[in-house]
Specification:
mainly alpha, 5 helices, globular
Length: 128
């Protein structure tokens, strides 16, 4: 049995700092030496992650219109994209390492997600 301990609440608290980090770190690390996309892929992903977090139905969502399951799916796709980007876009050195490290981190967080218990039919009926 694999450990699953990252709850929806913990994930919500990670989202904003991660989004800001994806925007700021490429500039601080001076990414883009091997390809300018090494800088801009992270910045664009950070902006999209921030918007996704604002729109996700979780504790820190501002306009809770997107289901959390969609958020997790997008996170998984970002992890996969970050893992293959260095190969597809020709990133090497720090540029490649940055994306591989982020891919590993994102995929670990998604894989350690603890499923929320579903509401029982009595609780769901009472909520209506």
């Amino acid at each position: 049995m694999r450990p699953q301990f990252i709850t929806k609440t913990i994930h919500a608290f990670l989202d904003y700092p991660v989004a800001i980090s994806l925007i700021a770190m490429p500039f601080l690390l001076q990414l883009g030496e091997t390809n300018p996309l090494a800088l801009w892929l992270s910045v664009g992903t950070g902006v999209a992650a921030f918007i996704l977090t604002v729109l996700t139905d979780h504790q820190l969502g501002v306009v809770r219109v997107l289901p959390y399951s969609l958020h997790l799916t997008v996170d998984f796709l970002v992890g996969v994209t970050f893992a293959v980007a260095p190969f597809v876009l020709g990133f090497t050195g720090l540029d490649a390492g940055y994306y591989w490290a982020n891919a590993i981190a994102v995929l670990i967080v998604v894989s350690l997600h603890k499923a929320e218990p579903s509401a029982s039919p009595k609780v769901a009926a009472a909520a209506v």
